[in-house]
Amino acid sequence: MPFYAVGHKTPDTDAIVAAIALADLKNQLGEDVIPVRQGDVTPETQFVLDRFNQPTPELKTSVAGESVYIVDHSDLAQSPDDLAEATVLGIVDHHKLGDITTSAPLECWIRPVGCSCTIITEMYHYHGLSIPKDIAGIMLCAILSDTVIFKSPTCTELDKKVVQELADIAGVDDAQALGIEMFKVKSAVEGTPARDLVLRDFKDFSMSGNKVGVGQLEAIDNSVFTAIKAELEAELVKLKAEGERHTMILVLTDIMKEGSEVIVVSNDETLAERAFGANFTDGKAWLDGVLSRKKQIIPPLEKALS
After folding, report:
1. In this structure, are 143 and 289 located in the same domain?
2. Could you count the other beta carbons within 10 Å of the beta carbon of residue 304?
3. Radius of gyration, alpha carbons of the chain
4. Is 227 inside a domain boundary?
5. How does pLDDT run across 126-167, given as a tens digit for each residue?
6. How does DSSP classify residue 4?
7. Which domain holds residue 90?
């Protein structure tokens, strides 16, 4: 009976690629592990998989009775809904420690780095295993995506070192140029429904008993959102009501200007100003230097709601 490696709901590139890479590592160690996903792949992720000839993992949203490895998260809200009925064999993550608990010891690799794939590279080293060329390519892309091509405050020297190592294995001469290609794909929003955009890179969090949804869209130039901003705001309002959420936030990140416009819809009208120390007009504010959801958005929100 196979085991499964699964990333978070509404998966980004790291969630998909980390599942693929961890499955390869475990397969090399003699375990039968299959990578799966909890949602549709994003255009950026599809670009990465196609670029390095990797199949899209199968969709699997129920894990009851299965044995699973959790990657790129450790929050129950982002896990399969029936995770309590599964056996969690291990967690590989680079976020804060969440609320997944187990009744038996498990393998945990949790590090304060920019990407889960940086950690999995260290796991390959630990076990003395070789990283296949195409696996190295998709891992390289996941790190470039999560670190916003090294611009994110979550990026570490280890991430940069690993990117160079993976680029050498994958035969990529210019990793940063590949990163720009990826973000051009991310920036192509024309024709995509507003709801799909809000949910493209979206996570729910439990903060002091409040359900808070945070989505992020990254672009080379935020002007691509100008014509559709009202539609995005309308979807935030709808999703807040539908999900019985306390707060919905959309982070529109401009990677060239190295900052984000944050749009907030909340039961607490002063939440955003308390959290971010900025003046919000009609629920919107530009936050200079803010690129990372996990480091610059979630912690101040949790503090403001505590």
Report:
1. no
2. 19
3. 19
4. yes
5. 999 999 999 999 999 999 999 999 999 999 999 999 999 999
6. E
7. 3-184
